[in-house]
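Weekly structure sync, notes
Attendees: PL (lead), two postdocs, one rotation student
Agenda item 3: pending single-chain targets
PL asked that the sequence for the first pending target be pasted directly into the notes so everyone works from the same version. It is reproduced below exactly as submitted, 974 residues in total.
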Amino acid sequence: MLRRCRAVCVLLLGAAAALAASAQQRSFRYFDQNDGLRNVAVNALAQDGAGYVWAGTENGLYRYDGSTFRRFGAEQGLSTAAITSLHADAGGGLWVGTWQGLFRWQEGSFVEVRMADKMIRVGAGQLLDSTSPEQILVVSEQKRLLKVEPQRGGPGWVVQPFFSAPQIEARAELRSISGLRVGRRGDLWLACAASLCRVDSAGVATWKLPGPIDPGVPIGILPDSRGDVWVNSSSRQLQLPAAQHDFIDRSDARANRGSVHVYTPIVEDAWGHILTRSSDDGVIRWDGSRWEAIGPADGLSVSGGVNAILADRDGGVWLGTSGRGVVRWVGYRHFSAWTTRENLPHDDVWSFMRDGPGRLLVGTGAGAVWLDDREQRAARRVGGGDGADTHQAGSLARDQAGNLWIGTFTGALMKIDARTRVRSVVATLPLIFRVHVDSSGVLWIGTKHGVFVIDLPAGDHTPRRVDDKVAGFGPAPDPQATDICERVPGEVWVTTSLGLLRWKDAELMKMALPAHDGMASTEQGLLACGAKGGVWLVGGPGPPGVWQLGSMAAAAAQNEVVTRVLADRHVMSLHEDRRGWLWVSTDDGVFVFDGVRSRHLNQDAGLLWNDCNQGALYEDDDGSMWVGTSRGASHVENTETLFDLPAPRVRIESVSRDGQALQLGAGASLPWTRSALTIRAVSLSFDSPRAVRFRHRMLGLDDEWSAITAAEVTYPALPPGHYRYEIMAQNDDLRTQSPPAFVEFEILPPWWRSTVFYVACVLLFGMAVVSLFRWRVRALSLNQARLEALVQVRTRELESSREQMRELALKDGLTGVWNRRALTDLLQTELARALRQGEPLTLVMADADHFKRVNDTLGHQAGDEILKELARRFVAVTRAYDTVGRYGGEEFIIVLPGLQSNRAEDRARIEAFHRIVSDTPMDIGGEQRLSLTCSFGVAGVDATVQVSVEQLIARADKALYRAKELGRDRIEYG
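Predicted structure, written out during the meeting:
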């Protein structure tokens, strides 16, 4: 019996209730806090060489492993949470740009890359790229292009300007870089000032950018697969065709026009389409001739705009949004959908048929409508003189004259005239399940009470019964006819409540179907005639199986082909396409079989809704497929690439024991414990993840492969021995699998099973025997007491020595004041306290004037005596909570908490510090005394302004330099 069949019309829908839309629906998967993404303001996206997708947010860096996002931060060496840029280099390594520095993911942790011990600040936009695994390019906050390369002969990185001083002097535009991208041939493209620059072996070439370009916003650059170069700013999209000198303005009013102009992402997908952000509501896509907008009307909700776009290595598209987290475009290449948002009168879609001019007629639960799908326009009602059509249009057919026929569940048989496009009711019959026009032009009508035909070429539109007599069975008692197809010209097949009927040579006869593996009837009422002359049936009773009738001779042979895949799903429709692929729609999505492989198309793959309607499968003129569901129509495009999925990949992500991660390299060994060992693997295959299964084994414990549903296994208390754990991911439907991922290790024997333990047992037994004979208990006790006393003495000595070592490590060996490392830590603490409590803080940087002359004329010993005397004088006049330290050479730093450098009384104290140096000559040994002056550079902290230690020292150093320039022996304030 037809599922969800209505015997009466649904309620009329007013025309005013249909709001015209302008696009199809798309499928999107949103990742937010429920998926581990604690911050949903995403600034950057990247995919590393292993296949992980990384998301940089305003508060944290996250990695997606196919099931959840995991946060990476201070524990992994990332000292800041605000991420501005991400980049996966040519070797698959991950680079992270922030306002607090540049970092690289290296052997399980982040390593900061500095330039001359200074942090590299990276802003938002396309400011990171790489030419090779050995070189990364970065645009610094000063808009300078830097290159980062591994240090030769050792760890670390070397950072230096990409352009030499003469190059910059010759080309002024190279002073201001606001975007970069490495081309496919290794050439470098830059947004330099108001121009586009290309750097290659021939030198630097420039193209003046036409029109206004906002200089304060990063520029997106994209050399595409055709050799063209795209330039994307906050308001312009420019295309520079290959080997041409003039830009083509491709600007779209919707692109980048939003509240945030910091991000101008532009990428190319796997099929050559260009994507960038639009306004604050979605993206636009260039298909080679025009921009297509994808936004709220298409089901995309980004809440504040798209900051980042990632085209992953499998052809998928990911969006990083300002307020909705990470969005994955599901079924990017293959799926679109049409619902009541596109003006369908009802979301229940039952049938499709393309007319001669190419428009698509869609039968819904509230009438049939025209769908201008190729122009992406909203659906329009079919015209008719008898009022709005609200019949459930369960089946559609087109005759040889181009007229369209509609069979409805209310029994109305309607016709849409090919010339006038006017709909009219031709006849009223019992509930109509199927209409079909055969090769001779006869219209077949399967109803709840019989099979009817209309001989359209004869011109008489009066339906007549053809099942009133079935050969060999006599009169038929009004059989229910649910499906009709034509195998070859002149041979029509009909599924009915009597069984499977065949019309041939003007005779209708029942086909005998011998029982085979439970198939005793065709009560499901579904069939499809294949392009190669076969017939497909859904048989029962019991769990449905899809069968193919082979030879059409007397006794047909059944062949079950997909029962294993269909399992307990309810089959709704069958169709064999022009390639010979079998399509089966069910209550759990659509299955496609190419004779060897299968593919499950469901919501995870991009299908609008899993619950398909009966008979709602239609192959379009271009080979695409339409699927009717209870929530709208799904369009499956580019079907020739449906099976072009990469083999699944698997990666062992972690090995842990008692919640502690273990680093297992080659030849790793673990001590035996009673704790369980947990091994977690991930499959970084984001298309159809539910089709991926895992098999694993632990060589050394069990050599046989076994299936697991989740890629995490636990082994309790493995016995001592050598082990190799292997796991592979496989897609049973596509018959593909990954190479095994593995980890090798050894479990060491417990201490009581070691050779050392056995030797110790023998020795202890011997000692026990000796002890029994000598009765030396008292002596042993006294000896133990003496040992404990010695241990206590030694412990005190070690603690004293350790404190002395700590003191030596923090104090300057010559002057006895704090050294530079300790001074920086103390200054960091005092600065944090001052900013937190809103108190002033003053830093004085003092430098002895002409100190080099002392060393050159009187010797370094005299210089050392002066440095010690300077330190003593400074310490003598400081308060208990002031800090004096030697910063380097003859430079000292004095940290004065609570002192405000712009107050007169506080400046008097600073001047007193200055006078203690020059007022009294210094003893330099050998009864010699020397008068000395010094210069001060002073920097203060205003509690209302955030400042770092480096910035504060830089200000004081600048003031000191000014004091030197102005004649020395003076104080300058910065």
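Discussion points:
- The mean pLDDT is 85.
- The chain has four domains: 27-337, 338-522+532-641, 651-752, 814-973.
Action: rotation student to compare against the earlier draft before next sync.
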